[in-house]
Design goal:
heterotrimer; A: mainly alpha; elongated; C: mainly alpha; 2 domains; three-stranded antiparallel sheet; 76% helix; 8% strand; flat
């Protein structure tokens, strides 16, 4: 059963990579601008600057209130990643690197996965099933219902961090083509 | 009152189809982006009306805010992409 | 004959020597002056850097605190739960976001006159709403009339507003008014697309610009600067 999606995926990849190569052969890039440059539009820059803290706080709200209202780790992580993407495309690569770089994104994605699997394994060590938070009450010293709530909160924080980092690094890779400017320079110097 | 919201939502829903026509057949990419952004704002209002109908506004406000944010960021990203490519 | 020539040449030589000595003295003086000036300038720059460093850290701390308060208010507005657990979560999240982006919210804003600004905003909000309402009716008339009497045009005008935040406020209120859309701002020059002549005329009267300058206190700034200039000239005359 698993063969069908794999075939479809490889077919799509082959097709789109061929198309991309054809178009790139026909029309070389007209300008040196990239997605990760500072915009010269002052409206977009100012509005993004004012909006970004509120977007980030809203993302954290969606993550933290996942067990009361719609949303949760994945949705909050998407919004948090979108805020960083907005900063990247409005303020440019140089400034965005101070807040979130690709190395940091990789670290954060691993860290989020560590939180998620760590809580799951903790339940396993305490003698119940994987991600069965009821047993966490022994550590947290609360009743099992509250322990379940706190455990879900922790797992959602982990999922949110991982989703944010992975979304950011996917956008980063697509927009820079996987090649950073200083990497190019360093490589040329090395050769 | 609930009937009023239902009819309002149905009217907006029929307007979404007009925008969808522009999005599918519209000449050029810019028309499509504008149409999708307009569909996004209409969906936001329809979501809020649904919240009023089901008496759970506080829940639907969260969803509609997420929708508005992602619509905004998506439109800006598409506009910047078109600005770079310089071919519409 | 030869003696007079000799004396004349000797005189000339002495003159040249005198000139050279004077030039050398002037050079020495100017060099000494330049070194002392450079030294004093470097000292001044050091003290200024020291002072501005202290000021910058204080401004950063103030921005951090105000951003935290605004974000915590926003959290309470969103959450609507007042038990200790959720409030503690709100404090942690607001601190995190304020730490991440304390320099984003207040980048180029003067803060001292916030109350006056808020009062003026609420005073002039009905005018903006009325403007939007009347423009709405006009655009609906344009769209629904069968002849479609539109006359699209691009206006280009220089504004007297100075800071970028007031440019953005101006651009957003132009875009919010139906029939006009701000296309671009290039160094204080607005490019506005207007749907018809009446809308363009309403924009060209500059009433909206005056209102925004009043709300964001741009005019007061210019006014104070004028007074300072006049007082200096008056003092010089006296």
């Amino acid at each position: 059963m698993i063969r069908l999606p794999v075939i479809c995926y490889s077919f799509l990849v082959a097709r789109y990579s061929n198309e991309y190569q054809e178009t790139s052969n026909e029309q070389p890039a007209t300008s040196n601008e990239t997605m990760t440059q500072v915009t010269d539009d002052i409206i977009i820059r100012t509005v993004a600057r004012i909006l970004i803290p509120f977007i980030q706080l809203y993302a954290l709200y969606v993550i933290m209130h996942g067990h009361h209202s719609p949303g949760g780790g994945f949705q909050g992580g998407v919004i948090l990643g979108a805020s960083f993407i907005l900063y990247l495309i409005t303020h440019g690569l140089e400034e965005a690197k101070i807040r979130m770089s690709e190395v940091k994104a990789g670290l954060f994605s691993s860290f989020g996965l560590l939180i998620y699997s760590g809580i799951g394994l903790l339940c396993l060590i305490l003698g119940s099933n994987y991600l069965d938070y009821g047993k966490l009450s022994a550590i947290l010293r609360v009743i099992p219902a509250q322990a379940r709530s706190l455990g879900i909160l922790g797992v959602e924080i982990g999922v949110g961090i991982a989703v944010m980092a992975v979304m950011f690094s996917i956008f980063f890779d697509i927009s820079t083509g996987g090649i950073l400017p200083e990497d190019e320079e360093g490589g040329q110097e090395g050769r | 009152m609930s009937n009023f919201f239902i009819y309002l939502g149905m009217g907006l829903f029929s307007l979404v189809f007009l925008c969808l026509y522009r999005g599918v057949f519209g000449p050029g990419v810019l028309n499509r982006i504008a149409a999708i952004s307009a569909i996004g704002t209409k969906t936001l209002v329809i979501l809020l009306l649904m919240g009023f109908i089901y008496d759970r506004v506080e829940m639907f406000i969260d969803i509609s805010m997420v929708y508005a944010l992602l619509n905004f960021i998506g439109t800006i990203t598409a506009a910047k992409y078109l600005e770079i490519k310089r071919e519409v | 004959m030869e003696v007079t020539v000799l004396i004349q040449t000797a005189d000339k030589a002495f003159e040249i020597l005198e000139k050279a000595r004077e030039e050398a003295r002037e050079l020495l003086y100017s060099a000494a002056k330049l070194t002392s000036e450079a030294k004093s300038l470097a000292e001044k720059r050091e003290t200024r850097a020291f002072l501005s460093g202290a000021q910058q850290s204080r401004v950063a701390l103030r921005n951090f605190a105000i951003t935290f308060l605004i974000l915590f208010g926003f959290w309470i507005l969103l959450s609507g739960r007042f038990d200790y657990f959720h409030l503690a979560l709100g404090v942690i999240c607001s601190l995190l976001v304020a730490y991440l982006s304390y320099d984003l919210l207040f980048f180029n804003v003067r803060l001292g006159d916030f109350r006056i600004r808020a009062r003026r905003f609420f005073q002039s909000a009905p005018w903006f709403l009325g403007q939007i309402f009347s423009a709405n009716l006009h655009v609906a008339y344009l769209a629904l009339s069968p002849k479609m009497p539109i006359d699209p045009q691009i206006l280009r005008f220089k504004t007297k507003l100075e800071s970028d935040i007031s440019w953005v406020a101006m651009a957003n209120s132009i875009t919010l008014t139906p029939g006009t859309i701000t296309m671009d701002i290039r160094e204080g020059e607005f490019f506005v697309h207007a749907l018809d002549k009446k809308v363009a005329y309403d924009l060209n009267t500059g009433e909206m610009e005056d209102k925004i300058a009043h709300v964001l206190m741009e005019a007061d700034h210019v006014y104070i600067q004028d007074v300072l200039d006049v007082s200096r000239i008056f003092g010089a005359l006296k």
